[in-house]
Design goal:
five-stranded antiparallel β-sheet, 19 helices, 530 residues, alpha+beta, 42% helix, eight-stranded mixed β-sheet
């Protein structure tokens, strides 16, 4: 006869103690708990077990002993038995002493409840918008949900399981992506945002993003891959459209300017966006453009400018700069470093030589240019009004760069840099530099020192300028001290060595003018004695 009123089992101490924590714990479990000795006597039952069994412990005893032998009851093992077709019982046999007896601990689960939970779980998996999968290492699906089948263009899970038997060759547009997938999971625990192009059932190519992990058993043996798949085709198309917009916009507003303003796209630019930064500014101007355009039709002028700018623009980008704007027959470009700006200027002059060879062969006159570079702080930003905005740079640094370029006409040279640019250079890279003047530029109170960079001069002219540098510097110092005759004598010697040096010609004329003014002043100061 089964006695369900027996005192609770004292698992931990083996002593009679109505306050044993075991009873408190198991009474609150949702699973049924029954403790029975090997004679079939019930030692303990919690509330969940009483509810599941409806008090029918005799039927439970018969079920257990019909499926578990007495020898089994002596083992420390777990076995599954079924009771009344609706309750699955896991019987844990433990050699636990209790009042001199060996007891069996049984955990009872309601299979119907578990079935409903499992169905609910599978329903969630099948109806999620993300695809879910499990695959073998070789590339066969073990499990997929409805969402994954839909992403790949299948009407049902069964169709996809049958049709896709080799993921590497049938699914991925680039089969090596599967190998990359396996390589990554071999060397790390999880893959996040693994993007690939795959084929749908109808042959359409789409983009997917996979998050996955490799699953291993307790002995570290590989079992399968599992993860999720998201169709990101629309996002990829949007990104590509944005790239196209940015590439198109970059032709009008430099992407570098957009990036410097902390934006990802031209669409994010707002009026009054600005940033202050140290940069080098280059101005390039075509000499005697008016004379050149007079002998060309408007169309020829248009084509000429484009052919010229096509030669110069890539040089700016090659040297990490960007063109801020085209100014009629010139260019305004910006660089992060003075070295990059000067290197770009020298390459432009070098390319101009080859460009002129082609023009001369075609019967056109050669093109000459002047380049001026200044370095300092400036403000990049968006100016204009709501319906018409423009990205630009403003500041004294920009104005000085423009004035420096204009001085190239005055001294008859191709490339001048300011003192701030000179001191920002690694001058060891640019040996062919000489100071030309310390002059007051329009709009500036302080004088600006300008230097000529003559590295791209014809070889014979460059070498003579280098040999004459010390003599020229002495003459320049005499000129600054207003010792114009001594300066003129030195400049005469320089000119004998380098007749083509237009800078020396400028200074010699200045000296002659100053001497003449001095002599005239002395004559005007003489008193006439009758």
């Amino acid at each position: 006869m089964l006695d369900t009123s027996m005192e609770p089992l004292h698992i931990f101490s083996g002593q009679s103690d109505l306050h044993n924590p075991f009873e408190t714990i198991v009474q609150n479990l949702q699973d049924g708990v029954v403790v029975m000795d090997r004679d079939g006597n019930v030692c303990f039952v919690n509330s969940a077990a009483k509810s599941l069994l409806n008090g029918d412990f005799e039927s439970l005893r018969k079920t257990v002993f019909a499926q578990i032998s007495a020898e089994d009851a002596c083992l420390s093992d777990s076995k599954q038995v079924r009771h009344n077709g609706s309750i699955a019982m896991e019987v844990q046999i433990s050699n636990i002493p209790w009042q001199g007896k060996m007891v069996m601990l049984m955990i009872l689960h309601d299979t119907e409840q578990h079935r409903k939970l499992e169905e609910k779980y599978r329903d969630i998996l099948n109806n999620t918008i993300d695809g879910i999968f499990q695959t073998t290492y070789e590339g066969q699906y073990i499990y997929i949900n409805k969402a994954l089948a839909h992403i790949y263009g299948y009407d049902s899970i069964e169709e996809m399981m049958i049709d896709l038997s080799d993921i590497e060759r049938q699914l991925y547009v680039l089969p090596e992506r599967r190998k990359e997938f396996q390589y990554l999971l071999k060397n790390q625990d999880i893959i996040i945002d693994f993007e690939s192009q795959v084929y749908r059932r109808d042959g359409e190519i789409i983009w997917i993003k996979e998050n996955s992990r490799a699953v291993y058993d307790k002995n570290s043996q590989f079992l399968y891959y599992e993860g999720t798949v998201e169709n990101i085709t629309k996002r990829k198309e949007a990104e590509e459209n944005l790239r196209i917009v940015n590439r198109s916009a970059d032709r009008f507003v430099p992407h570098r300017l957009i990036k410097l303003l902390g934006k990802k796209s031209i669409t994010e630019l707002q009026l009054n966006d600005f940033k202050q930064q140290q940069m080098s500014v280059m101005f390039l101007d075509i000499r005697d453009f008016t004379s050149l355009s007079e002998i060309m039709t408007p169309l020829e002028t248009f084509l000429f400018l484009n052919s010229f700018l096509k030669k110069m623009g890539p040089i700016v980008r090659k040297n990490h700069g960007f063109i801020d704007k085209y100014i009629g027959d010139g260019i305004m470009a910006l660089f992060d470093s003075a070295t990059d700006a000067l290197q770009a200027g020298l390459e432009m002059l070098g390319n101009l030589n080859s460009y002129n060879v082609g023009r001369e062969k075609a019967g056109y006159p050669p093109v000459r240019i002047g380049i001026g570079i200044n370095t300092g702080k400036l403000t990049l930003g968006v100016i204009g009004e709501e319906h018409r905005m423009d990205g630009t740079v403003i500041g004294d640094t920009v104005n000085v760069a423009s004035r420096v370029e204009q001085l190239t006409k005055k001294y008859g040279v191709s490339l001048l840099i300011s003192g701030s640019t000179f001191f920002a250079l690694d001058t060891a890279r640019f040996p062919c530099i000489r100071m030309v003047d310390r002059t007051r530029i329009r709009g500036k109170h302080k004088k600006v020192v300008v230097y000529e960079v003559f590295e791209t001069d014809p070889p014979h002219l460059r070498s003579r300028k280098e040999m004459n540098m010390q003599l020229f510097e002495k003459g320049w110092m005499m000129y600054q001290k207003q010792k114009f005759q001594e300066a003129a004598d030195l400049f005469e010697l320089c000119l004998e060595a380098v007749p083509e040096d237009q800078v020396i010609q400028v200074y010699l004329k200045r000296c002659e003018q100053k001497i003449e003014e001095s002599q005239l002043g002395r004559l005007q100061g003489l008193k006439i004695i009758p």
